[in-house]
Amino acid sequence: MQLRSYDNRDGYALTLNQTERNELMNELKRIGGKEVLAVAAYSGARRDEVAHVKHKDIRRSDAGFYKLRIYEDGAKRSEYREAPIPRWLAERIRAGEDDPDDLIREHTMRTYDNRLTTAADRLSDGDEAWEHLSMHDLRITAINSWLDDDAPRLMCMQWSGHDDWRTFRDHYLSNYSEQKQSEAATVGQT
To answer: 10, 50, 71, 156: least buried by Cβ within 10 Å?
Structure first.
């Protein structure tokens, strides 16, 4: 987990590593809310965007991968965009579909915030960094995960709804993950 101090308020922005994100999803599976919160953690959707996601917004592309359509009514910048969504999550959400126009969430977003806090508390094991985890951190985690998977920065900006490099860099990019730092440390070691 990487922490970064906020510039204009108390607290920290967090970026979870892959293991921590998986542990969080497993805990959310136990207490409820996994699929809804996974939309932020894997597709980089903002809290208000997650609130507007409907079953029909999960689409399979012609190339065979799944994407999440984020429409103007829920988007912060009132601009349509598409973001990747993992196959397991897309299929899980679509399996729970009764009506394509239904929202994927069954509760208020405050309920999901509370479940995220509960899951983080259970995972903390004395690590106070978990106390700072918010839905926005799930978005940051998704963006940095894409970059760790070598997605181009411009594509990550497009998926996350950014058109300003400085904002994207200053507020969303974390240091290189431990995995990337380990890989870089082996350069010239053979």
So the answer is: 10
